[in-house]
Amino acid sequence: MQTGTTLISSLADLGLAARCPRLVIKVGSALLVDAAGPRREWIAALAGEIAAARGRGQEVVVVSSGAIALGARTLGLDKGGRGSLADAQAAAAVGQIALSGLWAELLGAHGLVAAQLLLTLEDLEDRRRYLNAAATLGRLLDAGAVPVVNENDSVATQEIRFGDNDRLAARVAQAARASAVLLLSDIDGLYDRNPKEPGAKLLPLVRGVTTEIHAMADGGSGSGMGSGGMTSKLQAAEIAERAGIALVIGNGTKDRPVARVIEQGVGTLFLPKRKTGARKAWLGGRLRLKGTIAVDAGAAKALVGDASLLARGITRVDGDFLRGDAVAIVSPEGQVIAHGLSEYDAAECGKLIGRHSSEHEALLGYSPRSAIVHRDQLVLL
């Protein structure tokens, strides 16, 4: 099936197989689980909407939260299972069985086969493992299954985890070559201020996540069950837009939430700014960077002009990275302007700060490489 997002320009397009052949739907914990346990009727209704999408000729991937909340209830853990890392890991181990079984049963009622896929941050940050995950998703979709993805919280640590399924959904959409991501939340979309304030207005369309857009976000999770908030959703939108994928925030607390977004047009649609190549989209969406390279104004301007990063434009090096590690490149104002794979380790970069290429061999003791970060291994943000 051909995938792509260039045709999506409205919320209604999410319901058209020709414009949105592959859709990722992310469901938050508060929608799936309440104090009494799993919200079975609601999940069954969503399974019906997924079946309807399949009937329209669309492929669907589900990114499902809820394992920790379900497991915490079963084990009697306080704070929703998030009181400690050990609690969260134990709760996820118990809850994931119940969650995957529920999806398998309720999708199966519509003749759909559910497939469980548990991913860690490392699975999508390491290039080879990312490609393996992408291949698995592609094969499952080709076989007609509905992949149900969650973070593998039983083994994830505080240092190596997504921490919210919004960003996971954007990365999964990228790996699955999806057309769009629909984040079902407890709010209609992005408002120009806190929606509790008088006069707050829902933004139906956002063309690129800017500093001004970030200023509208509230970083908290209102339910107390999840780990995200509007800030994590905007971060997800940034990952999606760099990969040429549309992202939508819709209200999952309403009846038939997918249909409400598509048919009534209630939600916020984030249009992608541009579509980069697959490798650069993966690099631009990375969440873990091993270091930072600060550059002067001349180097920053050259990078915008599609140049490689040369040592003479570097002003500072931070972090402990090795050759091939992903680093952030920051402007003189401290703004991250690019991600790239370094051709040198941090110590070598430190020796080369501000130096001309003719000096590199004497400083390093071997023939230098063509750049600190080659333009083929660099993506502008």
Defining key terms:
381 residues, alpha/beta, Archaeosine Trna-guanine Transglycosylase, Chain: A, domain 4, Carbamate kinase
Describe it.
47% of the residues are buried. A hairpin with a 5-residue loop joins strand 13 and strand 14 (336-341). This protein has helices spanning 29-32, 40-55, 67-75, 85-108, 121-125, 127-142, 165-175, 211-214, 230-242, 257-264, 278-284, 297-304, 346-352, 360-364; strands at 22-27, 33-34, 37-38, 59-64, 114-119, 146-151, 180-185, 205-207, 246-251, 268-271, 291-295, 314-319, 326-330, 336-341, 378-380. The chain is 36% helix and 19% strand. The model is unreliable at 221-227 (pLDDT under 50). The protein has an 8-stranded mixed β-sheet, sandwiched between helices. Strands 12-11-13-14-15 form a 5-stranded mixed β-sheet, with helices on both faces. The protein has a two-stranded antiparallel sheet with strand order 2-3. It is globular and about 70 Å long. The chain is built from 14 helices and 15 strands. It is α/β, with parallel strands linked by helices. The longest helix is centred in the N-terminal third of the chain and has 24 residues, at 85-108. The protein starts with 21 loop residues before the first strand and ends with a strand. The protein folds into 2 domains: 11-282, Acetylglutamate kinase-like (Carbamate kinase); 289-380, PUA domain (Archaeosine Trna-guanine Transglycosylase, Chain: A, domain 4, Roll).
